[in-house]
Amino acid sequence: MLKSLRRAEEGKEGLEVYLDLTHGINYMSILTYRVVKEILEIFSIFDEVIFKAYNADPFSEFAEKLSINVIEDSKPTPTPFTEKAHNTKLKPLKGINLSPEESRKLFTEELKTSGKVKARELSALIGALYNGFPLALFRFYPEEKEILRKAVMEVLEVYEQYVRVSMEDGKLRVERRTKMDRDLKICAYSYVIATLLDELKLVSRRETEVPLNELIRLREELFKFDERLKARISRDLFHDYLKKLDDLKEKVPDWPDWIPFSKLEDKEECLPDPRNFHAHSGLEYCTVEVAKSGETFMVRYREDRIKNVANFCQAGLK
Q1: Domain total for the chain?
Q2: Does residue 176 sit in the same domain as residue 221?
Q3: Closest to 40 (Cα-Cα) out of 64, 17, 9, 24
Q4: Domain around 273
Q5: What is the mean pLDDT of the chain?
Q6: Rounded distance between C-alpha atoms, residue 128 and residue 312, angstroms
Q7: Residue 55: phi, psi to the nearest 5?
């Protein structure tokens, strides 16, 4: 996974991955296959991926010939990640039979970087890609992407520190004192998504105020992986926003700074509604404000409704 990620960071076009599944202890082969395949499905959203998996015939002194077998040769289907954090703070490790003092030390002293990560915003970022919300991808892009990488590496280091190896009655005993939790996966996959968005120059930093043209660009360059999402976003951007804003431009020559889109539609103050939010690609009138800078229309989420937006983005995630 890390080698593949470094390749993306180098900006190379396309990705070919070759996986040898010949050797493995217990379930290592199938677990390795699953994680590699899952992460390549995310890579496929952004670029073409070729995946080949191999194994070799087991050695036998009686065999006249041994072969290397291609067990899969495919182009992974573009599939967004579908999991979310269930706590406000990341808990990437769980203790196993730790004392209260050991647990306190683990979470307050040894996992300091993880404590800086805003779990709800990571889930909103994941959901924005999964559900097709272009404005939310800008709004919930990690403020400091590097913290996510550091958090993952920190967890791996701490996990190793909590493995005890000892000899008992002449036998080697290995004892795990922590286990990796799903929040580690949330953090790692969020880093993958943020890195790919950045390296392909789709979204490079968090932006609260976004030109409408940038959302149109995302529709063309990112959401082409899912024609259903692309068609829905097209309808919302071109019919609900561009057309109506162009009409209003003639009627309202003196444009105010920022104004709720619902007011431009002469609608009464409305409350955020998850069904409308999803039906309009995250551009629901009740949650979005618009402004005009020269000839450019700008959009942003209302800060007093950002919690609603973050929650709506996570719909459909497990």
Answers
A1: 3
A2: no
A3: 17
A4: 210-313
A5: 89
A6: 9
A7: -145, 165
